[in-house]
Amino acid sequence: MNVVIKSSKATKRDIEVVFNNEKFCFAESLTLDSLCKELGVYKSTSDARRAGREGKVPTGYSEIKASKKVTLFVWNPDEFPEYEYEALT
């Protein structure tokens, strides 16, 4: 599942390069347990924490094994690129 953190400094061009026309979704969560709940991987944040999904969502590109069947491909940049860009709104 491809995920872009909505509050990150992602640009349209970044998303095109990172996910190459694949489907993705935006997520509001900044912690792994709430991200897993928001995406429906776990029923609650408590279940996610019990499974060891704790802490902040890492910056940059990350592949996170959320459960046995679900891997998250997360794009969460922490700075804008040096080229001209159109920020997401």
What does this structure look like?
This protein is of the alpha/beta class. It has one domain. It contains three helices and four strands; from the N terminus they run E-H-E-H-H-E-E. It has helices spanning 12-19, 32-38, 45-50, and strands at 2-5, 25-27, 60-65, 71-76. The chain has a four-stranded mixed sheet, covered by helices on one side. The mean pLDDT is 89.
How is this structure best summarized?
This protein is of the alpha/beta class. The protein has helices spanning 12-19, 32-38, 45-50, and strands spanning 2-5, 25-27, 60-65, 71-76. The protein is elongated and about 45 Å long.
Features:
alpha/beta; 89 residues; 24% helix; 21% strand
Number of strands: 4
Global morphology: elongated
User: What is the radius of gyration computed over CA atoms, rounded to a whole number of angstroms?
Assistant: 13 Å
Order of helices and strands: EHEHHEE
State the strand order across the main sheet: 2-1-4-3
The quaternary organization reads as single chain
Q: What class would the helix/strand composition place it in?
A: alpha/beta
Number of domains: 1
Mean pLDDT: 89
Strand content: 15-25%
Helix content: 10-25%
